[in-house]
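We were asked to recover a plausible sequence for a given structure. The inputs and outputs are reproduced exactly as logged, with field labels preserved.

PROBLEM: sequence recovery
POSITIONS: 344
GIVEN STRUCTURE:
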């Protein structure tokens, strides 16, 4: 009888897990802002508690937090506008140079490999044709819809209309003491992760921009913002930043020692902040197995695209902490962290 029950549970699990993943996929327009807003709300919970200890009405606390978020968004928009003005101001110098380098590259590929290119269109201009504008507008519309839904869910989290502690207690953990302990660890680790990731990304963006200024590479503000944003994608973001900026530098810098030292400099920026300082700031207790990181990046990236890549590690941390609360799943949590001593 016990074996039959176990077999039935395994079969149900095999059916339920793909169904859950399918729902996460088709309902991504709800789950992405919901989970993203939870991480944002966790970041501001200490401020909410500080206001609560001083008997400040919750509505005023929420308004203050939303103003902080709005200020951050406004600063981001101003930086984007500044980088846009920087690009527009130098496009008369850069784009002809880029077209010349691209023409040389096309000629080389044509002579070496027999690849043919359309000559009746401007190469860079093809990215701004009418056929491509629709997809761009669709992306902008989806982005702002997600942003508004995220802001809505942040208000619900902060107002405790959605309570993480109660949700854990009523669904997964079923024990008040265990749920409080798990919630406190989730809050502590995720706040630490977000703060460290933001600081490391900001420093990466700042020094990437400074390297562009030092080596006289165009659009340092844009590339600083790009390095800052892409660094939130764990591991993959560093490679994308270095490869993209190195490819761009080929247009402006001659293939000499200057180009070599520029690529070496931006690579060192990524290594120092991403591979050395970030693990030091995170601490050993926060470590996640590199194989688990790669698997989670692939899984959540496939499921939710770019937002999935950004949230893959926080979601993994959340899952690891939940698994640590049960004796039967501690082995899985240990595999995720790569630390067998936690089983003892």
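RECOVERED SEQUENCE:
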């Amino acid at each position: 009888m016990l074996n039959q029950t176990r077999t039935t549970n395994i079969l149900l699990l095999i059916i339920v897990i793909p169904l859950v993943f399918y729902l996460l996929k088709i309902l991504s327009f709800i789950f992405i802002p919901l989970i993203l807003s939870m991480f944002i709300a966790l970041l501001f919970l200490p401020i909410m508690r500080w206001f609560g200890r001083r008997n400040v009405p919750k509505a005023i606390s929420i308004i203050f937090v939303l103003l902080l978020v709005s200020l951050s968004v406004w600063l981001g928009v101003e930086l984007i506008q500044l980088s846009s003005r920087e690009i527009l101001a130098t496009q008369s110098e850069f784009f002809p140079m880029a077209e010349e380098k691209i023409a040389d590259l096309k000629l080389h590929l044509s002579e070496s490999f027999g690849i043919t290119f359309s000559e009746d269109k401007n190469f860079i201009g093809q990215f701004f044709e009418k056929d491509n504008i629709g997809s761009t507008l669709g992306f902008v519309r989806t982005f702002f819809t997600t942003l508004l839904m995220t802001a809505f869910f942040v208000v619900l989290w902060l107002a405790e209309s959605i309570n993480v502690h109660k949700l854990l207690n009523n669904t997964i953990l079923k024990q008040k003491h265990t749920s409080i302990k798990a919630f406190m660890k989730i809050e502590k680790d995720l706040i630490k992760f977000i703060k460290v990731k933001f600081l490391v990304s900001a420093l990466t963006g700042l020094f990437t921009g400074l390297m562009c200024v030092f080596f006289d590479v165009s659009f340092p503000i844009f590339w600083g913002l790009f390095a800052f944003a892409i660094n939130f994608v764990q591991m993959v973001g560093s490679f994308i930043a270095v490869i993209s900026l190195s490819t761009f530098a080929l247009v402006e810098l001659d293939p000499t020692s200057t180009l070599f030292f520029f690529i070496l400099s931006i690579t060192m920026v990524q290594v120092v902040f991403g591979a050395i300082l970030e693990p030091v700031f995170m601490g050993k207790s926060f470590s996640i197995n590199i194989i688990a990181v790669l698997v989670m990046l692939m899984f959540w990236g496939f499921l939710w695209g770019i937002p999935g890549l950004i949230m893959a590690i926080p979601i993994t941390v959340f899952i690891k902490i939940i698994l640590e609360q049960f004796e039967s799943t501690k082995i899985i949590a240990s595999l995720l962290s790569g630390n067998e001593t936690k089983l003892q």
